[in-house]
Amino acid sequence: MAKLEQIQRLLYIAEQLKSKPNGITYEETKKFLEKKFEEKGFELKFSEKTFNRDRNLIAEILGLESKYQKTLGTFALNKEELNPESTSTLDDILVIEAYRKSKKNSKIVLFEKREPKGLHHFHDFIDAIKSHRVVSFTYQKYIENQPEKRVVVPYALKKSQNRWYLLATDFSPENKKPLRIFLSSDEKPDFEKPKIKSFGLDRISDAEVHHTRQLRFEKVLEDSFKHSFGVSSTLNETPQEIILSFTPRQGKYVKSLPLHHSQEILKEDERELRIKLKLFPTFDFTQEILSHGANVTVISPESFRDEIAKAISEMYKKYN
């Protein structure tokens, strides 16, 4: 029970740190925890020493480091050093905790009934990624009639549009070397960066993790998706400045959930929300823009504006 109470305490404090930009104090945190623990029927054992120890654990486990602000007399998260992955981890934990609370009553938290397929591959693929193993599987593209055998070097798993994808590169025997030699070498082999491809888990069958180990270029993931939207790599593509105009109402949704990490607000008034993105317009991005219907207008570049206009024209012909 003590461990459960500690985990619950850490989650509550982390949530308070995230929701209070000006920071928190020991006194107000203790009052908050007393109320929450009383609701759960837990006994709270909480001192100033415990408070400081919990903050250190939150920094170590969740990556949410809080520092003392002398002017306000509070402990607050350092926004400049805040890692987006850290806040995402906390969000995931809070969702799991909410699900745990409501699992006895499925009408409290409602999840999408459109469940993605292929999740049974998760365990094997994660193990393969962590151990640098090569993976083989049969892959059925939806645009082709016959499946094909693929041998790949897995890098990561990514979710997009309610589907899960394996991000991987084609296996290249000529690049194969014992991993220990690569890791111990001061001079890394000068290989051309491989291109990341995405494989839908719902199209994978007969997956097998092999003992063969392959060099992985860790930075290739970041470079492949820095200017991308969705699961398509844009490694060798030149990013463009995309300017979009949203209706005021739709703009509120776009502000609360940005389309891309590069999103920048150019103008906001009673007529529009105008934003700028820096990315290469992939098929996934085109589909995203079309999903907003008449609530968005592509201002520039002209090439992307023409692409959207052409898609709208083709849709209109089908309904006319």
From TrEMBL:
Residues 122-209 form the WYL domain. InterPro entries: CBASS_pafABC_assoc_protein, WCX_dom, WYL_dom. PROSITE patterns: WYL. It holds the Pfam family WYL. It comes from the Bacteria. Residues 239-315 form the WCX domain. This is WYL domain-containing protein.
